C-alpha cells in the first residue's frame, strides 16, 4: 500500500475489473483488489487525475 499505481496502470486495471465475471465478484481477493483500486482512483483524482480520462470504477458499477 506504500506504493501508488501510475495513472496508466490504474486505467488498465479498471478496464480489467470491468470485465470480471459476476461469479468472481463474491471472492475476498476481488473485494481486496476492488478496494485498492478505489483508493488509487481517489488518490489519482486528488493529485489532478486528468490522465484517467473517463476510466472510473464508479462507471463500471453503472454499466450493464
From TrEMBL:
One of its GO terms (biological process) is synaptic vesicle exocytosis. It comes from the Eukaryota. One of its GO terms (cellular component) is glutamatergic synapse. This is (Atlantic silverside) hypothetical protein. It comes from Menidia menidia (Atlantic silverside). The lineage of its organism: Eukaryota, Metazoa, Chordata, Craniata, Vertebrata.
Amino acid at each position: 500500500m506504500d506504493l501508488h499505481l501510475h495513472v496508466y496502470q490504474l486505467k488498465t486495471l479498471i478496464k480489467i475489473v470491468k470485465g470480471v465475471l459476476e461469479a468472481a465478484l463474491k471472492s475476498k481477493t476481488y473485494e481486496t483488489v476492488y478496494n485498492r483500486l478505489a483508493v488509487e482512483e481517489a488518490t489519482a483524482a486528488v493529485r489532478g487525475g486528468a490522465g484517467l480520462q473517463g476510466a472510473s470504477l464508479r462507471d463500471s458499477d453503472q454499466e450493464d
